[in-house]
């Protein structure tokens, strides 16, 4: 599953589209950024409601490929600028973290978008 396939399957808006459309190796859901640092894996997706520049900094630190912002949270321009600079995709969906986690988990398990 690539980032764009996941975005299409979720019906998510691609808010930062300057990234390599890489395969996603897994996903991690958390709104506590220190937890993300300790537990997220390289090449994965970060599912969160934390829509700010620090989320991008944490994603960069652990080499996350895509940030999925849930609950239609507004995205500040400095977050999108930082994600663009780092080549990290940013998706936004109206769904909550639980629903998105389940959908991405199932997609990764079956290999289908």
Describe the structure in your own words.
- This protein has one domain (3-110): 3-Layer(aba) Sandwich (Udp-n-acetylmuramoylalanyl-d-glutamate--2,6- Diaminopimelate Ligase, Chain: A, domain 1), CATH 3.40.1390.
- It has 5 helices and 5 strands, in the order αββαβαβαβα.
- It has helices at residues 3-10, 33-39, 53-62, 77-86, 97-110, and strands at residues 13-16, 27-29, 45-48, 66-69, 89-92.
- The protein has a 5-stranded mixed sheet with strand order 1-5-4-3-2, sandwiched between helices.
- Helix 3 runs parallel beside helix 4 (77-86).
- The longest helix is centred in the C-terminal third of the chain and has 14 residues, at 97-110.
- The protein is globular and about 35 Å long.
- The chain starts with a helix and ends with a helix.
Percent helix range: 40-55%
Specify the CATH architecture.
3-Layer(aba) Sandwich
Question: How many strand units?
Answer: 5
SSE topology string? HEEHEHEHEH
> What's the Cα radius of gyration?
12 Å
Domains, number: 1
Query: Number of DSSP helices?
Result: 5
Report the major sheet: 5 strands, mixed
The average pLDDT is 96
Low-confidence stretches: none
Give the spatial strand order of the biggest sheet.
1-5-4-3-2
TL;DR of this structure?
By secondary structure, the chain is α/β, with parallel strands linked by helices.
Per-chain topology:
Blueprint: H1 3-10, E1 13-16, E2 27-29, H2 33-39, E3 45-48, H3 53-62, E4 66-69, H4 77-86, E5 89-92, H5 97-110
Parallel strand pairs: 2-3, 3-4, 4-5
Antiparallel strand pairs: 1-5
Helix pairs in contact: 2-3, 3-4
């Amino acid at each position: 599953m690539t980032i764009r396939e996941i975005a299409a399957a979720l019906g998510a808006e691609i808010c930062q589209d300057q990234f390599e459309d890489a395969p996603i190796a897994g996903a991690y859901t958390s709104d506590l950024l220190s937890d993300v640092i300790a537990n997220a894996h390289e090449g994965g997706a970060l599912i969160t409601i934390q829509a700010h520049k620090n989320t991008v900094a944490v994603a960069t630190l652990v080499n996350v490929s895509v940030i999925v912002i849930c609950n239609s949270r507004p995205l500040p321009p400095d977050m999108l600028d930082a994600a663009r600079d780092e080549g990290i995709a940013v998706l936004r969906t109206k769904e909550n973290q639980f629903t998105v986690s389940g959908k991405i988990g199932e997609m990764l398990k079956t290999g289908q978008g």
